[in-house]
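Quick illustration, no need to memorize.
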Amino acid sequence: MPLKIWLPSKYDIPLIGDFLLQQEWVHYLMSWSGMIYDLSIPFLLLYKKTRVFAFILVIIFHLFTAVLFPIGMFPYIMIVASLIFFDSKFHNKIIHLIKLILSPLKKYNIEKVEKFKSVNSKLITSIVIIFLIIQIIFPLRFVLYPGNLFWNEKGYRFSWRVMLMEKMGYTTFKIVDGVSNKYFYVDNKDFLTPFQEKQMSFQPDFIIEYAHFLGNHFTLQGHKNIEVYADSFVALNGRRSKRFIDPNKVKKEEELDAFFKSSIPERLKRIAMRRLWRINPIISFADSEINDYADDFTDAATVIDDLQTSYVVGQGHGNLDFGKNLEEEEQETEIEKNKISSETKKVKNKKEIKSEKKIWS
């Protein structure tokens, strides 16, 4: 819940910041009351008997949000825009009040229009209906995209998802020469302000746009075979951060389609292909022929200790004397073993003779 992150940071607000805003129950209360407010306020403003009360709620709600969150002019615009729910008499009073205020300065001619006749009412009605349909359907387009909306942000903008997520990220960019594999890292401060870097680090479209900018920039500087790699870690709603762009974490095949586009570097394509093999239900099962390629055939995995081969430096493999040398070494070791065993027997016999003499003396 984002409010559990945002509200405790407002400890410097007089009276409520150091106590109330630090309480967890206050975070839940404000979340639920905000939801109830958003769902009920249009109907309270439409109903004449509750209109004044609703407008007072609008003022309190938006002034409070203006104090808590840095959202610019939005709260004040919403307060003024809510006046549209009042009837014509109320607006006439406002116009009369404005005339009184401006009359000492200059004479303004404010005409009052009683009726307005439309040239083509059917056309205007059709346009309004189409506009309303767009306003309903367009925010719901996010349901057509796979994955978590707050994570990948596909269809997030204009989706009625307001103040529901808190994301922080850290993204580094590496510029690679695709032929020589030489690379260097980009200092984002050379191109972005702190606010731009903060916003770029966790928004996918900003990351792609910035990567394209870096590619064009270093290409114009004379670098060739430019490949731009982004490594991004993002935290969502207070959770621990994890890698933002990682094909190894994909669980559905269709989500890997983006990694096979022509503009994607070959390294990422190979990673995505390996991931595709692991999650494909047809080839992901255990199979001996496939698993043969998963074994480790490096020297460290296959060579045993003290292994001898027929390879001789300067002569290569297939030395004919190799077998003879082994047989000679084995014979020598056998002879040495026999010598050692015979000497140990002689020593034992001498000890036994001496012990017998001592016993019978």
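Residues 321-360 form the longest helix (40 residues).
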